[in-house]
């Protein structure tokens, strides 16, 4: 059985000085504090402490061996998206980080794989870069769940998803730039409350708007973090669709009927949550993803699935690897 961790993050050890390059402030950069440790900076503000597994492929591979992971798929830390920047700057950054991601993977391309990033604020540029990245060796693309006030049902974002479907490019949707920031500035509440809500918002914006009716069923789409709060709240959404016409006005079918249109990862951290998730989505729509190497990620990668006391061995095989191999077209 091939074990695949399809949701991990990377940062290059170093990259060009973007503030100097573009002549503007508050770009992300890395301040290395001691051997193997660093602080992600945004301008002069500290964003997150990190360690060498983010940029050192030898450490990454050691941790994979420790956890029994055969293949790891990495994507950019969302602070690198730069959707708020001028499109030409974000496009140049996407190309820089996409190429640096492949450099990391080159140390063991059979085990290390990457998803690209794109300048999603410019759909034409995003389509060009995702096609280039796929040809250069990326398995797919990671995008944020919104661009400013444009959610997943925005016509531009739908066009991008259609482009990915037409070129067989898998898409991972990751929450970022979370809502309610002024009310959630302590205790990592943005990550604990707003991030799951952002993910559910992304899913429901596609379902309730009727966007899924306009997107090819060939699209390979996955939402991070178990789909956020979607599975737990799906009964509430179905109930609203049945009893309120303003909920179903653009959605021709009951929301729970759309769970065959997307996948989710397994980063939910409890047996009960994973049990619910597989019942809602089906064991063929859940892929093992750890969100490593961050503190909010699974610290013993794959343990939740391997040691789950009610999942069948068939379900475990699917979640631990088979679903990801199919989704990403890995031979």
UniProtKB/TrEMBL annotation:
Organism from which the protein derives? Shewanella eurypsychrophilus
Q: Where does the Amidohydrolase-related domain lie?
A: 4-330
State the SUPFAM superfamilies in the record. Answer: Metallo-dependent hydrolases
Which segments of the protein form a coiled coil according to its record? none
Domain of life from the UniProt record: Bacteria
Entry keywords, A to Z: Decarboxylase, Lyase, Metal-binding, Zinc
Q: What is its EC number?
A: 4.1.1.45
InterPro entries tied to this protein: ACMSD (IPR032465), Amidohydro-rel (IPR006680), Metal_Hydrolase (IPR032466)
Q: What is this protein called?
A: 2-amino-3-carboxymuconate-6-semialdehyde decarboxylase
List the pathway annotation.
Secondary metabolite metabolism; quinolate metabolism
> Assembly state and interactors?
Monomer.
Q: Which family does it belong to?
A: Belongs to the metallo-dependent hydrolases superfamily. ACMSD family.
